[in-house]
Amino acid sequence: MTRDRKYYTDANRESWDEAADRHRAANQARLLQDVRNTDYNALDHFLIEALAVPGVAGKSVVQLCCNNAKDLLSVMRMGAARGVGVDASTAFIAQGEELVAAADLQDRMELIVSDVYELPDRLTGQFDIVLITVGVFGWMPDLPLFYRVIERLLKPGGYFVIEDMHPVLMMYEPGKNGAPSTLQWSYFKQDPWRDTEGLDYFEHKDYEGKPAYSFMFKLDDILMGGLGVGLALRHFKEIDVDISHFCQDLEHVDSKPPLGFTMVMEKPAQPIGGTE
Ligand SMILES: C[S@@+](CC[C@H](N)C(=O)[O-])C[C@H]1O[C@@H](n2cnc3c(N)ncnc32)[C@H](O)[C@@H]1O
Questions:
Q1: Cα–Cα distance between 77 and 211 in angstroms, integer?
Q2: What value, to the nearest 5°, has the Cα angle with vertex 111 and ends 105 and 113?
Q3: What's the CA gap between 243 and 127, in Å, rounded?
Q4: Domains along the chain with CATH numbers
Q5: Whose CA is nearest to atom 9 of ligand 1?
C-alpha cells in the first residue's frame, strides 16, 4: 500500500534513531580520534574525483542525509569554507556534533536536525555544492521533490555531487551467513521495501527493529530528475566496487553488475532564458 511521503520519512527517522547506538558502539571512539587529524579523509577516490569537478576549496557545502557528518568533515578537511549537514536523526546529529567539536570545526560547520523535505528557508540559494554520499536516493519517497529541494539550495552556478549505490545493485538481496547475494527484485519495482531487521550495516547483525521503508530508484529517474529541474550533467561514472558494503560478494562474481555511481550536475549560472 502506498502512503504519503511523511508516513515514510517519520518511520525512517525512528528507525535510524533506533540504530544510532549500534553505530556509535562500532565507530564513534575511533572517529573521535581520527577526525582530529587535519588530513582526515573518509572519502573514496571515486567521490574525490567527482568533487574535483567543482573543486571544494573555499566552497560552501551542504550535505543532505549526512548521518554523523564524517563525510562532510572530510570535505572540510579538503578545504571547504563552510559546511552544513542535515539529517532527520537527532541521535546521529548528536554523534556528528561530537565529531565536529573533536575536529575543532564548530566555527565553520553547522549540523541541523531536519527532514530534507522540510528545510528552513534560510538555506535557500546558500551553497556552491549540495552533496549526498552512499545510501541516500533509496530513502527518498519523492524523488522529483528531492530534486526541487536540491535546486533550491544551490547558488546559481552551484553543483550537485552524488555518490550512491547503483540502482541495479538494488535488485539484489544480500546473502546471509556467507550465502551468495541473489538477483531478486524488479528494476521497475514501485512499492517500497519494508524492513524490520534493523539498520546495523557495520556489524551486519539483524535485530527486531522498527519498520524502515526504502525505495527503488531507476537511473532514468535520477538523470531526468536533475535535468527536469534545469541541472546539466557534468560527470557520470559507474563503479565496480561495492561502496555500500551491501553485497560485497558481487565484486567477485563473473556476472558482476554495476555496484555504485558518481554523478555531478551543475545549476546554470543564470536562470534558463535569462540574459547576460
Ligand atoms: C545510509 S545513511 C547515509 C550515510 C552517510 N553517507 C554516511 O557516510 O554516514 C542515510 C541517512 O539518511 C538519513 N535520512 C533518511 N531519510 C531522511 C530524510 N527524509 N531527511 C533527512 N535525513 C534522512 C538517515 O537518518 C541516515 O542518517
A1: 36
A2: 165
A3: 26
A4: 5-266 (3.40.50.150)
A5: 67
- Which residue's CA is minimally distant from atom 26 of ligand 1? 67
Q: Between vectors from CA 9 to CA 3 and to CA 15, what angle results, nearest 5°? A: 115
Written as nine digits, the cell of 255 is 556476472
Alpha carbons 247 and 170: distance in angstroms, whole number:
10
Partner residues linked to 264 by β-bridges: 161, 235
Mean pLDDT, residues 138-160: 98
Ligand 1 contact, 213 CB (< 6 A): no
Q: For 122-126, which contacts have Cβ atoms below 8 Å and span 24 or more sequence positions?
A: 123/62, 123/84, 123/153, 124/152, 124/153, 125/152, 125/153, 125/154, 125/155, 125/156, 126/60, 126/62, 126/84, 126/153, 126/155
Look up residue 192 and give its DSSP letter: P
Question: Is the CB of 71 inside a 6 Å radius of any atom of ligand 1?
Answer: yes
Residue-wise pLDDT tens digits, 6-38: 999 999 999 999 999 999 999 999 999 999 999
Residue written as cell 579538503?
78
pLDDT average, residue stretch 75-101: 98
CA of 87 to the centre of ligand 1 (A): 6
Instruction: Identify whether the C-beta of residue 65 lies closer than 8 Å to the C-beta of residue 132.
Output: yes
Helices in 115-260 by DSSP H: which ranges? 143-153, 219-228
